[in-house]
Design a protein that fits this description.
Layout: E1 2-8, H1 15-27, E2 33-39, H2 46-56, E3 60-64, H3 71-81, E4 86-89, H4 101-109, E5 114-122, H5 127-143, E6 152-159, H6 160-166, H7 176-183, E7 187-194, H8 206-220, H9 223-251, H10 259-292, H11 304-307
Helix pairs in contact: 9-10
Uridine-5'-diphosphate is lined by residues 7-9, 11, 40, 68, 70-71, 74, 91-93, 95, 202-204.
Amino acid sequence: MISIVTPVYNEEGNVVYFHDEVTKVMKGVDMDYEIIYVNDGSKDRTDELIHQLADSDPHVRALTFARNFGHQIAITCGMDFAIGDAVITMDGDMQHPPELIPKLIEKWQEGYDIVQTIRTTTEDAGPVKKMTSAGYYAFINAISTTRVTPGGSDFRLMDRKALETFKKFREHSRFIRGIVGGLGFKQTSIEFEAPARHAGVSKFSMRKMLHFAMDGIITNSTLPLRMAFYIGVLAAVAGVLVILHVLYCVIAGQAVPGWATMTILISIFGSLNLMGLGIVGEYLGRIFEEAKNRPLYWLQDDTASHADNPYRET
Ligand code: UDP
Ligand code: MG
């Protein structure tokens, strides 16, 4: 049995179309399936629509978050509830083409535990998004121990075995690509071209995108902390040289000038200090979030659909 997990946030223009397309594809695959829609606190008719789908199609399960928790958490919730032998996560806006599902399943049947997909192009991504994305992946791979494939997406298949391991990762700041990359098992990937959205606009605001990018870096590596330390060491060495220079000037009786040096040094070291503090703060903030140990998500209707979930959070 295959579980398809789809997070939906204000996707009233897409869910029904998406559902029809996925259903068509799944009818062609000789396997039982379920489609789990996780409504991530939508403010439009998405919730009503997924519940209508659940009423008319026994393959559908509809889960509704009590508020918006974000794409990564919504996927996680769907995976917690999935009962299939393999789970496929995919976006609900048709940017992850349902026609690829049989290919993912084929790879799984060949014996792969994780089948990742890689975007070669995205139709509606501008040059700026493409460039920042490429730069970002280069940076994250330079600083982290596990590899994150450039163009990696959250459209992937995971076998039950890999899924059960993934479910043990309960951190709040999550960059699923990084976690999955580090899981090991037998992984493979297939490439695809992401078409433009079917309807609506991207739900990732600049702010969400930046936060997500920061999570990717911080949850994957402690190198920025060490960098702050190394930069501090370099600054200290430079400081010692400056002290020697100042002492020399005093002894040589030329101690009056130096206003320019002072100003420059204060501003450089002042900003280095703040930068270091900022990096520490980013980690500290996340430690605080994790230490509170709140549930990852909670549902609007904590009854029937929740009862069978081993990861039930109260
Ligand atoms: N999404 C979500 N919660 C959010 C933002 C997005 O569940 O806070 C869903 C959205 O409905 C879609 C998927 O995540 O199914 C990907 O979002 P989107 O298409 O907006 O991202 P993009 O493709 O622009 O990166
Ligand atoms: Mg999209």
